[in-house]
Amino acid sequence: MATAEGGHPFGKEAMMDIEIKPKPSQPHWYERYLQPCVAELLGTALFIFTGCLSALEDVEGMGRLQPALGHGLALAASIATAADISGAHFNPAVSLAVWLVGGMNITMLLPYWGSQLCGGMIGAGLAKAVVTSQRYVASHGGAFGSIADDEQIPAALVAEIVLTTFLILVVCMGAINGKTRTPLVPLHVSFVVTAAVLAGGGVSGACMNPARAFGPAVVANYWDYHWVYWVGPMVAALLSGVLVRLLMGDRTTRLFLK
Fold first, then answer.
1. What region does 9 belong to: left with phi over 0, alpha with psi -120 to 50, or beta?
2. 255 in helix, strand or coil?
3. What is the pLDDT of residue 24?
4. pTM for the predicted model, two decimal places
5. Long-range contacts of range 220-223, CB-CB < 8 Å, 24 or more positions apart?
6. What does the DSSP 8-state code read for residue 143?
7. pLDDT (tens digit, 9 = 90+) per residue, 46-88?
8. What angle do CA 110, 185, 75 make, to 5 degrees?
9. Fewer beta carbons below 10 Å: N end or C end of the chain?
10. How do residues 223-245 score in pLDDT, each as one tens digit?
């Protein structure tokens, strides 16, 4: 009970001694839900525009070097710019793998996919607008035309699975797994993409990204063996998720032996 001499035990003086800890501010809904999708849309569009243009305007005698550098360098810059906003996936297969290893909420998976596919169409459309029609038609609008007949399908499919698994493991281990996380992941991803195009460009085109295949296919209306560039990367995403969750991840990402 309060007394006249002592005053109320929870009076003004006592309350001033209590440390008031402010609640951590929650990100605005725009920053949590809409801004990441905008970053994925814009980043994918710019990456695919640059990638398509490097293939459409390939200088004679450069071979696969120009597309390899065009894709790799554009991706590194895009990742470094948007990584803190959306994670800078720019690839439906990467988003699937990131969700599988616990790096994103499932509620954002479909919005990310939609943003990436729309970005792919925008980037391919911009590439079409800046090249001559003759060059555009001859190169199938930057769509993947490495597979000429059914006999090439097994080799192309295996190449897409292996190369995409390499790419996704670098992303997951470098950006999500706590033990191996590094700020150099944009550079590492750039190296992987460049090496993959140089090594596997003649086998499958080294797509590794359904959005990169989808955008030019829609704009150029070129769908020959298009399914390979969805099946290969998505299988690789599942495989990478299993590898990280069961074998490669640290205690925060492994399912067992925590």
1. alpha
2. coil
3. 58
4. 0.87
5. 220/124, 220/128, 220/136, 220/140, 220/141, 220/142, 220/143, 222/140, 222/141, 222/143, 222/145
6. -
7. 999 999 999 898 767 678 899 999 999 999 999 999 999 999 9
8. 65
9. N
10. 999 999 999 999 999 999 999 99
Q: At what angle do helices 185-200 and 153-175 cross, to 10 degrees?
A: 170
The label of the residue with tokens 């599942």 reads: 238
Which residues pair with residue 7 across a beta bridge? 3
Single-letter amino acid code for the residue at 152:
Q
Distance CA 236, CA 162 (A): 7
* Dist. CA 136–CA 141, nearest whole Å: 5
CA–CA distance, 30 with 214 (Å, rounded to integer): 28
Place of tokens 């590094």: 182
Please list the alpha-helical segments (H only) found in 57-152.
Answer: 65-86, 92-100, 109-130, 133-138
Q: Which helix (H) or strand (E) holds 233?
A: helix 228-243
